[in-house]
Design a protein that fits this description.
Blueprint: E1 3-9, E2 13-20, E3 23-31, H1 34-44, E4 51-55, E5 60-67, H2 72-86, E6 93-100, E7 108-115, H3 122-130, E8 135-140, E9 156-163, E10 167-174, E11 177-184, H4 192-209, E12 219-225, H5 227-236, E13 243-249, H6 250-256, H7 269-278, H8 292-324, H9 329-351, H10 360-376, H11 380-393, E14 397-407, E15 422-432, H12 438-454, E16 458-463, E17 484-493
Parallel strand pairs: 1-4, 4-8, 9-12, 12-13
Antiparallel strand pairs: 1-2, 2-3, 5-7, 6-7, 9-10, 10-11, 14-15, 15-17, 16-17
Helix pairs in contact: 1-3, 4-5
Length: about 500
């Protein structure tokens, strides 16, 4: 891989680094805040190379199931039914064939998995789509851990690693096939060694309760850490006849991956990022919609290679022709004259081209975006008519301000389009006729907010007549008008899929 953008996403932050070969050219950390996302937009403007998104989250679910062995459209329909049964609320899901049974109907052992909280991923994904970043796929730490245990002889192995911004990851393999994985946050008052000791016994009992570890079988535990943590763990881990410990030196694993990085602790984030760059799994959580710019990037690259091969073939053919006719001076001179004539015509045609600094690929992408905006852009009456109809049902609300803008950073609700900007409306108004009856006013305002939500808006209260939140303060309302209470809402609307 010559150049790639590696992204590591945890629950509350995103780490990004641009690599060229084995060297890190550029990197940055971005928090899950509006400021952090704006900084990420600026970071992406420096690169347009393929991106690989690696996630490490608690909200990753695994389900083992045995399904009939089918092919073609029947197999596709079966997998879709399983997705609807297990993971209806997320688009980030995949099915992995573990093995085909050797007896009976020879059914398929399948592992269904998903990232069950799309709200943690969509804001970053929307930014990459808006910047036309060629995203190759969305992966998870358990999904790319198999190469780290492929040379282990154990049939029942638990891989333990620690990632600084996500926590302690425990991934269980049976016959070198992923079965289940758990992530436990590690807080500042808990060391890596103590977290391993505390969680290992719980995971062992968890595997026994699910019958994933057969009775009488020894569990091999492979811990990825540095030398200092290994020495401490050897002292703290209990001696148990049912558990065997093996320590993978993180510096040695880094050298095997040709990683130019100095490890000061047992943080394995860089190991998994480079493992992803070196050994990408064939399946991932991203859909074709998420990776469309990567597909275009591959197509453009293939066309460049084809053009180069065609040019080389033409040169070889021309050289062969010249060599074969080397004894014929007249033919050679005629060929030179024809070549000069063609070069002259090509130059004249080139000079007739319009002057432009915009690459053809960018022009094509711009036309595609404009067509999409024409197709899915929203007329003002479509966005505002439901608000007007709702206000008719609530006569005690008097609107005194309405602001409208478009945004690409707003969260995307389920069954709405992620590839067009959101319409953001700030609604300011007064509530009339309630006097000092704040309870009735707040109840009336809640019903108004609920009605707007039912009409397809994502509604967020900016200000309310009375702040009753745990962090709010009760201001002196004695000077307020008896017939007027102020509030403001933020309404977010997107086109339905």
């Amino acid at each position: 891989m010559k150049q790639a953008l590696l992204l590591f996403l945890s629950a509350d932050r995103l780490h990004a680094q641009l690599i060229a070969g084995s060297e890190t050219v550029l990197q940055g950390d971005f928090t899950d805040t509006p400021e952090g996302r704006e900084s990420f937009v600026s970071f992406l403007q420096a690169t347009k190379c393929p991106a690989y998104l690696l996630t490490d989250m608690i909200e990753e679910d695994f389900r083992h199931d045995i399904v009939p062995h089918l092919i073609g459209s029947s197999h596709t329909a079966l997998i879709q039914r399983k997705f609807d049964q297990y993971y209806r609320g997320t688009p980030f899901r995949k099915a992995t064939l573990l093995q085909r049974q050797k007896t009976g109907r020879r059914d398929d052992d399948m592992l269904f998995s998903a990232l069950t909280n799309p709200g943690l991923i969509m804001p970053w994904l929307n930014i990459m789509l808006a910047q036309q970043i060629p995203l190759a796929g969305i992966y998870s730490v358990p999904q790319i851990s198999e190469p780290l245990v492929k040379n282990q002889a154990s049939k029942h192995l638990l891989l333990i690693s620690w990632e600084r911004f996500s926590g302690l990851r425990q991934t269980y393999f049976s016959d070198h096939r992923l079965q289940i994985s758990r992530l436990t946050p590690v807080y500042a008052d808990l060391t890596f060694q103590n977290a391993v000791v505390n969680e290992l016994s719980r995971t062992y009992q968890y595997l026994k309760s699910l019958s994933l570890l057969p009775a009488g079988q020894i569990l091999d535990v492979r811990i990825l850490c540095n030398a200092d943590d290994r020495n401490e763990l050897q002292k703290k881990l209990p001696n148990d006849a049912d558990v065997r410990y093996d320590f993978a030196d993180i510096d040695e694993v880094g050298r095997q991956l040709k990683l130019d990085y100095h490890f000061t602790d047992s943080d394995a984030s860089q190991i998994f990022l480079r493992q992803l760059a070196a050994n990408r799994p064939s399946t991932h959580y991203a859909s074709a919609e998420h990776t469309r710019y990567y597909t275009l990037w591959q197509l453009r690259r293939a066309l460049n290679w084809s053009s180069g091969a065609l040019l080389l073939a033409s040169i070889l053919w021309a050289a062969t022709t010249v060599w074969q006719s080397g004894g014929n001076v007249t033919a050679a001179n005629a060929l030179k004259t024809e070549t000069a004539h063609l070069v002259k015509e090509a130059k004249q045609i080139t000079q007739g081209f319009p002057v432009t600094d915009t690459p053809a690929a960018d022009m094509k992408a711009s036309v595609s975006v404009m067509r999409k905006l024409d197709q899915y852009g929203s007329a003002p009456q479509i966005v505002l008519n439901p608000i007007s109809a709702t206000l008719d049902r609530f006569p005690k609300i008097d609107v005194n301000g309405l602001d409208w803008k478009e945004s690409t950073t707003e969260p995307v609700a389920i069954n709405t389009r992620a590839d067009v900007p959101a319409e953001v409306i700030t609604l300011k108004g007064d509530m009339l006729g309630f006097g000092n009856d704040y309870r009735a006013a707040l109840a009336y305002l809640d019903r108004f907010q609920l009605e707007l939500s039912k009409r397809g808006y994502q509604v967020t209260a900016i200000t309310r007549p009375l702040d009753v939140s745990p962090t709010g303060s009760l201001a002196n309302q004695s000077e307020a008008s008896e017939n007027q209470l102020d509030f403001s809402f933020k309404l977010v609307w997107r086109s339905a899929i």
